[in-house]
């Protein structure tokens, strides 16, 4: 079993590696393997289990179970080989579970393109959002980037870090399996509405605490980031549930309040305009400064979670 000192070193090392290097795309990535497992299981489960919803439940159980078991086994076997090997494997699995740097880099491509090429910015945005982007003007492109960073601060940064702190690399990888399942089969279309039901609902459950924690962390981080902490708290309380997702509205509301902007509203999907509830008040226009602010909130929230965890360990005398 990993000592508390090793666990702290793994967490701090993983956060640092993610901040400096981002996602190690050139190395084997557990999420790629998880995605391949999901794709490989879908056909056989649909054929073998007549009840489509039950087949989806089995997909969830098998995928998350295998992901956790393999991650835990790799760590255990590496520690048996040598403590240094166990530490390295733990560090790598923790590192690839975090996505702050990647989220920053991918969203920054949108804003950077806006400086000279709006069509290129629309295209870059289309890679990170589900809405149609071909006709968006600059404020709407910025809104898409801000909403993406705010929402994914919850499920791409704070949630995996929360589970890493709670249960080590294996639990963080299990969370990534849940998140990957939702992104692959958690759609409300004819193909997945029944098969992906369990994955979508379990993703909601897994993100319930982290999403609300993200909102609170953003409130606390806002004044440290030169933003409006009081506004973040007010809009979090007022508009945190103004979203079709039971979780995504909390980080988006805190971000909107901190930035003094309005998020939500009309989006176009498959040629049809969908009116979504608005989040926040339009005190300031959506601008590149809004995007820079939400990126600071993301990093500030992550730093506060790590600092709070270390303070709690010190308070109880663990360190």
UniProtKB/TrEMBL annotation:
Record-stated family: Belongs to the CobD/CbiB family.
Localization: Cell membrane
Species for this entry: Geomonas diazotrophica
Summary of the function given for this chain in its UniProt record: Converts cobyric acid to cobinamide by the addition of aminopropanol on the F carboxylic group.
UniProt superkingdom: Bacteria
Main subcellular localisation: membrane
PANTHER family: COBALAMIN BIOSYNTHESIS PROTEIN CBIB
Membrane topology: Multi-pass membrane protein
Record keywords, A-Z: Cell membrane, Cobalamin biosynthesis, Membrane, Transmembrane, Transmembrane helix
Classification lineage: Bacteria, Pseudomonadati, Thermodesulfobacteriota, Desulfuromonadia, Geobacterales
Regions that span the bilayer: 52-71, 78-98, 157-178
Pathway stated in the Swiss-Prot or TrEMBL entry: Cofactor biosynthesis; adenosylcobalamin biosynthesis
Record's protein name: Cobalamin biosynthesis protein CobD
HAMAP family in alphabetical order: CobD_CbiB
């Amino acid at each position: 079993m990993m000592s508390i000192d090793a666990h702290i070193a793994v967490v701090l090392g993983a956060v640092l590696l993610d901040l400096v290097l981002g996602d190690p795309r050139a190395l084997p990535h557990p999420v790629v393997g998880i995605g391949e497992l999901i794709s490989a299981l879908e056909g056989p489960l649909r054929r073998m289990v007549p009840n489509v919803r039950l087949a989806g439940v089995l997909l969830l159980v098998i995928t998350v179970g295998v992901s956790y078991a393999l991650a835990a086994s790799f760590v255990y076997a590496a520690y048996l080989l040598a403590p240094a090997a166990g530490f390295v494997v733990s560090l790598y699995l923790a590192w690839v579970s975090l996505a702050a740097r990647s989220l920053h880099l991918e969203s920054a491509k949108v804003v950077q393109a806006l400086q000279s090429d709006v069509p290129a910015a629309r295209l870059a945005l289309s890679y990170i959002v589900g809405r149609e982007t071909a006709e968006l003007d600059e404020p709407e492109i910025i809104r898409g980037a801000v909403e993406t960073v705010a929402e994914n601060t919850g499920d791409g940064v704070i949630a995996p870090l929360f589970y890493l702190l709670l249960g080590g690399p294996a639990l963080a990888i299990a969370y990534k399996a849940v998140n990957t399942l939702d992104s692959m089969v958690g759609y409300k279309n004819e193909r997945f509405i029944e098969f992906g039901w369990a994955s979508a609902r379990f993703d909601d459950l897994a993100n319930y605490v982290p999403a609300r924690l993200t909102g609170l962390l953003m409130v606390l981080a806002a004044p440290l980031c030169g933003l409006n902490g009081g506004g973040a708290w007010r809009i979090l309380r007022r508009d945190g549930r103004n979203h079709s997702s039971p979780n995504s509205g909390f980080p988006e509301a805190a971000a909107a309040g901190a930035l003094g902007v309005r998020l939500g509203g009309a989006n176009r999907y498959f040629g049809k305009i969908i009116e979504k509830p608005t989040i926040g008040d339009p005190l300031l226009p959506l601008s590149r400064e809004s995007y820079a602010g939400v990126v600071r909130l993301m990093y500030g929230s992550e730093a506060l979670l790590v600092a709070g965890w270390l303070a709690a360990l010190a308070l109880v005398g663990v360190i």
